[in-house]
Amino acid sequence: MEIPYIVNARKDTGLNNSKIAIWLFLASEVMLFGGLFSSYIFLRVFADYPWPERALPVLPGLINTFILIASSVTVVFAWAGLKLRKWNMFRANMAFTILCAAVFMVLKADEYNKKLHHHASQTEDYAWLEGHLDKDHPNQYTIEADTINFSVESTASNYLDAIITQNADYPRAYFVEKLYEKINSGDLSEVAKNSYKEYIELSKDVLPKKIDKASKVVVDLLEEAHALPTIPTLAEPYKIRTIEAGKFTETVLYSAGTELSPEVLAVANDEFIRARTHNQELRTQLLKDAWNEIRDVDKHPELADIADLESKVKSAVTKAHNALIDKAEENNEFLIANGNMMFNSKGAEFSLNTGWGRISDSTIGAKYSNVSLLDGTVLSGTAGDSSIVYHYVDGIDFRHLVLKAEAKGLNAEELIERSPILNIHDHGGHHGGADIREIWEAHKVWRGFLAADLLTQDDWLTGEGRVPTEVDLYRVTWHQMVAYDKLKKEMVVAKKISANAPLKDAITAENWMRINGELKPSMLNDVKSKLPEEIIATFPHHVSIERDEVRFDSVFSPKMNNYYAIYFTITGLHGLHVIGGAIVLGYYLFFGRKMYLSNPEWLANRVEVGGLFWHFVDLVWILVFPLFYLM
């Protein structure tokens, strides 16, 4: 059966069917993205936290804007080529359109990748620290677990594998850790240090049974490590009840001391499901028996004329049901439905992904701390070092702290000075660039000059002197960190300040405007997959912040806040539209020859429909770019 009006226009509408369909589809798309853009406006207007401003790199977004505009032009030329019966013109322009779509998605994927590898921590006082985590110190909860409680029906295999693997590796890790402590103690000679380093290398993969010619201290330490538990063991016997020939027998399925394994939990889960099913069926049968008893006129004549749903009848049924359950329990008719198994791990140290659950008390050395995983597994013991370690910090933000302080009538500047971010370990990591406090002190000098300069300029709306924005006052970006460092180096070379002078001494009334001028890093850095090492070297390195000082931490994902939630929603949906549109246009390019030879107008109509969709995709991005990248 041939579909009508795929080439020629209908007499009633003046359009062919495909063009009517695409306009109806685009109407639904307008409603979809219109709702999302409206959501963005409401989320921004009613945000109860400082809305991120200029949080995205402008240059990649600008390039993508021109890429989509160019592709919208070439898709029209492709259509024109078909109208002019110029097949090669169509092919060239359509190929360029698809190439533009590919470049757009590559830049978008790179932007997503950078956001999802960029981390931020909010301290208890609402200050923010941004940067990249140290690869040698993953974002994990660490606990020296005495016991591990598993929920047998919901234990996740990846969680279980991590626990078993880490426990098995605990003696080796313990031995290596103690050797490092000896090396760092400063009590060893250089010869002894080198020997200890050889022992560490020897224990890189497997803990050796013995080490020849080792000192007594090392031998004792090795024996101590081998004595540590390698696999958690069952704390109490796991009992079950079985039914044989109508008789209930209680047996021990696993005795205390049984080693943890996936098979142990799997068998226990099967028994738990069997027992729970039996108990549910028994309770249902007892409920039926209770109803039969209550509705027996000889036993309960006073309830004969009362409806089933009346409270008096339901109360009597409940009472009879409970009595039957009690009797069944006395006769051991219920099976043991134990859904939990407790294992002893004897203080073994575990480091678990923070995305797997939550820790109750992250203070180092805190007793009775629990790490509760999403599958119901709970590790209980002493909290270890769960500090968040940044390889380098590239942003600090006190705007949320200031917002909270002003709401409570507190002095924001005093709270900032007491913030853990400015009093962080090792003075903010003085390895490489300046430390965090030094950068903040320099920023205060710069913003002072900025405020004084703006005050001399009249605001066009109020007619009064202008004032700095909250971003200018309380946020330090990586661009400013680099500019401050460049300025100091210039001042040192010019011998205007010494190399040991504080960073703030480099900022003067004559040069402060250069911070956001020629000293600002090039926007070309935004399209690079990684910042140059000379830029990274200016940031505070090896910054550690204790977990109990952190209120919230996350990569720059939808979990971060509503800004990133709506950003990923809109741009993610738009990206899917780009991919879908490119697939359709690609089909016309690679498989449209037969359609073209059959009837060029047929293919031209199809390309026109695809082009209308592509123009809509371009239009959405033209709205996205200023909202997310410029405002």
TrEMBL record:
Question: Which keywords does this chain's UniProt record carry?
Answer: Membrane, Transmembrane, Transmembrane helix
Compartments it resides in? Membrane
Per the record, the GO terms for biological process are: aerobic electron transport chain
Q: Which GO terms describe its cellular component?
A: membrane
Q: Which GO terms describe its molecular function?
A: cytochrome-c oxidase activity
Gene3D superfamilies recorded for this chain? Cytochrome c oxidase, subunit III, four-helix bundle
Give membrane topology per the record: Multi-pass membrane protein
Domain named Heme-copper oxidase subunit III family profile is located at 1-121, 549-631
**TM segments?**
20-43, 55-82, 88-107, 564-591, 611-630
Q: Where is the signal peptide?
A: none
InterPro entries found in the cross-reference section: Cyt_c/ubiquinol_Oxase_su3, Cyt_c_oxidase-like_su3, Cyt_c_oxidase_su3-like_sf, Cyt_c_oxidase_su3_a-hlx
The record's family statement is:
Belongs to the cytochrome c oxidase subunit 3 family.
Q: What is this protein called?
A: Heme-copper oxidase subunit III family profile domain-containing protein
Organism the protein comes from: Rubritalea profundi
